Amino acid sequence: MDVGTDIVDIERIAKLIDRHGKGFCYRFFTDLECQYCFSKPQPAQHFAGRFAIKESIIKILGAQTFKEIEVVNREDGKPILNLYGTAKKVAEKLGYTNISISISHAQKQAVAIAVAL
Ligand SMILES: CC(C)(COP(=O)(O)OP(=O)(O)OC[C@H]1O[C@@H](n2cnc3c(N)ncnc32)[C@H](O)[C@@H]1OP(=O)(O)O)[C@@H](O)C(=O)NCCC(=O)NCCS
Fold it and tell me: What is the mean pLDDT of residues 19-39?
């Protein structure tokens, strides 16, 4: 078992989106993540939560490519983790069969936690 957590400043992400446009988003986030976040009234808070999840997973698995770590939401909104490529292989090598995640955002920051079993 292992756990990872991270907290991200939403304003920092909003500035990156302002400066670099959608290029920033598509560099670090999958198409599904970008679609989800841009469908929301305040995309930066959802990108920040996903950024925090990616960093949380990196704390568990070690350095990984951001786009190999994906958050999708179930119909009821609950976030689910998908791993691809090397990130998936590393998780398997470490013996993790289930990684649960949770995200929360406030006005200024987004926080995430990942628990790997
Ligand atoms: C899940 C819930 C507690 C979120 O609380 P909140 O204070 O509004 O929002 P937070 O900032 O703490 O969390 C938002 C994150 O919660 C997560 N989330 C959403 N629905 C969830 C659920 N059913 N289970 C677990 N996590 C959920 C998402 O990851 C979301 O972030 P994202 O959209 O960027 O992925 C709230 O929406 C809820 O109670 N939902 C279930 C019941 C419901 O839909 N009620 C509606 C009217 S009664």
Answer: 95
Please name each of the domains of the chain with its CATH number: 2-116 (3.90.470.20)
Coil, strand, or helix at residue 21? coil
Ligand 1 midpoint to CA 111 (Å): 13
pTM here is 0.94
Query: What's the 93 CA to ligand 1 centre distance in angstroms?
Result: 32
Res. 78 pLDDT band, cuts 50 70 90: very high
Question: Going by CA atoms, what residue is nearest to atom 31 of ligand 1?
Answer: 103
d(CA 90, CA 83): 10
